[in-house]
Amino acid sequence: MRSEEYREHFRKNFLLAYPVVLSQLGHIMVSVFDSLMVGQIGTIPLAAASLGNSIFTITLVFGLGVSYSITPLIAAADGRRNYTRISLLLLNGLFSNLLLGVFLFIAGYFLSPYITFLDQPEEVVRQAIPYINILFLSMVPLMVFQAFRQFAEGLSLTKQAMYISIVANALNVLLNYILIFGKLGFEPMGLVGAGWATLISRIIMALMMGAYVLYAKRFAAFHRFLTIRHLSLIHMYHIFKLGLPISGQMVFEMGAFSFSAIMIGWLGARELAAHQIAINVASVTYMMASGIAAAATIRVGNQKGLRNFRAMRMAGNSSFAMGVIFMIASGILMIAGKNFIPSLYIDDPAVIEMASMLMIIAALFQISDGVQVVGLGALRGLEDVRIPSLISLVAYWVIGLPVGYFLCFKAGFGVNGVWTGLLVGLSVAAILLFWRFKMLSHQLDK
C-alpha cells in the first residue's frame, strides 16, 4: 500500500514539476544563450557577462524570493476553497511585485557605477555596466510575469508559464543573434545587444502571462476584487512577511556564488570567463531542480491546507527522491561533457581547460544542490522560511566562502579552491534543510 501511495505522489509531483522545470529552464537559458553568443566575440565580453550576471543575480533572486511567497499562500487558500482570499492575493501580489520591480531597477541603476570598486579588470567593468543597467530595467516586466505565474502555480496550473517561457526564450535567441552580431540592418551591439534582447523578451513574457490570467474564463471567479480599492496593506504584509525571508535565503545562496565570481575576478579575466561557463551549466541544472522544488511547495502547501499531514510528508519525501535522481543524471552528463561543453562557449584553450576542471567539481555538488533546493521548496510549503534563511547564511557565508578563500589564495588551488568551498557550503545546507523538513513534517504528522 505504501509503495502504491508513493507512486501516486511521484506521478502528481511529475505532472506539476515538468512544466515548472521547463519554465525555469527558460529563465536561465536567457543567460546561457547570452553567454554562448557573447563568448563568440571574445574573452573580455564573456568575462563582463560573468561579472554583470553575478551582480544582477543578487537582484534577480531577491525579487523572485518575494514572488515565491504568493504560491504557498494561494495553494493553502485553494486547499480551503477560500476564493475571496485567492482573489485578493492576486491583486495585492501583482501590486507588490510591480512596486518591488520598480524599486530594484532604480536601486540597481544608481548603484551599478560602484562596480568599479570591486577591483575587477578595467575593460571588463567598462563593458559590464551598461549591460547590467539594461538587466536591472528588465526586473520590472519580470516581476509582473512572476506575480501572474506564481498565482497560476498556486492553483496547480504550471503548463502555461512553460509555454510562454519557451516562446520568450526562442525570441531572446533570435534577438541575440540580430543585436549582438548586427544582422538585418542593425549595428553590432555586442554585450549590450544581449541585454536589450533580454529586456524585450521579458516584456513579451509579462504581457502574455498577464493576458492569460486576466482573460481566461477559468480565472473569472478571481477577478471580482481586481480594483484599486481592494488593495490591502494586510495582504501585502503577509506576502512580504513570507517573501522577505525567502529572498534572504536566496540572496545568501546566490550572493555566495556572486561573491565567488568577484574573488575569481581577482585572479584574472580568463579565470572569470571559465567560471561563467561552469556556473552557466550548473545554473541550468539548479533551475531545473528548482522546478521540482516548486512542485514540492505546491503539494506540501496544499496538503497542509487540507490538514492531510501524512500525505504532506510523502509529497515532500517523494520530491527529495526526484531531486536526487535528476541531479545524479545531471552530474554524469557534466563529467561526460566536461571538455566538449566549454568549447561551445569559447575557443580559448586555457579557458576551456579551467572550465573543464570546474565542471567536474560542479558534477560533485549536484546531489547537494538538488537536496537543498528541494528542501527549501518543501519548507516553503510549510511556510517555514526564517530558519532556512539562517541555514543558508551559515552554510555559505560562515563555512563555504571562507573555505573557498583559504583554498584559493592561501593553499594555492586558485579557481578550483573557490569552487570546492561552494561544494562544502552546498553540502552543509543540504544536510540541515533535509533534517529540518523531516523534523517539522514528523511533528505535524504526530
TrEMBL record:
Alphabetical UniProt keywords: Antiport, Cell membrane, Ion transport, Membrane, Transmembrane, Transmembrane helix, Transport
This protein's record includes keyword Transmembrane: yes
Chief location bin: membrane
Transmembrane intervals: 12-33, 53-76, 88-111, 131-149, 161-182, 194-215, 275-298, 319-337, 357-378, 390-412, 418-437
Membrane topology value: Multi-pass membrane protein
Keyword Transmembrane part of the UniProt annotation: yes
Record InterPro entries: MATE_fam (IPR002528), MATE_MdtK (IPR050222), MdtK-like (IPR048279)
CDD domains in UniProt: MATE_NorM_like
Cellular location(s): Cell membrane
Family matches, as NCBIfam families: matE
Protein name (Swiss-Prot/TrEMBL): Multidrug-efflux transporter
